[in-house]
Each structure stands twice: as structure tokens, then as C-alpha cells.
Amino acid sequence: MLVLTRKTDESIVLGKDIEIKILGIEEGKVKVGISAPKNIEIYRKEVYLTIEEENKAASKPQNLDQLKGLFKK
């Protein structure tokens, strides 16, 4: 893991297209702005993990009858 120290209005650049800028620091919270192409998905980690879990659950048959129903002609 790379650890950097940044002040307000300083940035980090990832590749050619992504910039992460520190917008402010107040009451122990850091406000971050991210500039990236529209085709790049950006999620807070807790949201991303929830999406992953929901996708895993949706890909599993709920019961054996559902699975059998997929193969009926």
C-alpha cells in the first residue's frame, strides 16, 4: 500500500485520466473529489461490498426446485 500525505487543494493522479483531490479537512473528515472518465465506476467501499454480496446471492438458486425448473423442457 502506498501512503501519501496531502493537504487541502493537493491531488494524486492515477494513470492519465484519474485525479483525486483533497477538497477540505474538517472535524476529522476528509472531503475528496474524484475526476475520472464516465466509463470508470466509482463506489464507496461499503457500497461496493454490498453490491458484490447482492450479486453473489442473486447468482445462486434459492432452492432445488428453482434449479430443476431451469432444465425443464
Topology:
Layout: E1 11-14, E2 18-26, E3 29-35, H1 45-58, H2 64-70
Antiparallel strand pairs: 1-2, 2-3
Kindly describe this structure.
The protein is α+β, with helices and mostly antiparallel strands and 73 residues long. The chain has one domain. It is 29% helix and 27% strand. The protein is built from two helices and three strands, in the order βββαα. The protein has a three-stranded antiparallel sheet with strand order 1-2-3, with no helix packed on it. The longest helix is centred in the last third of the chain and has 14 residues.
Offer a concise description of the structure.
The protein has one domain. It is 29% helix and 27% strand.
Summary keywords:
elongated, alpha+beta, three-stranded antiparallel beta sheet, 73 residues, 27% strand, single chain, 3 strands, 2 helices
H/E order of the elements? EEEHH
Overall structural class, as computed from helix and strand content, comes to: alpha+beta
Number of domains: 1
SS field, number of helical segments: 2
Strand order of the largest sheet: 1-2-3
Distance between the termini: 52 Å
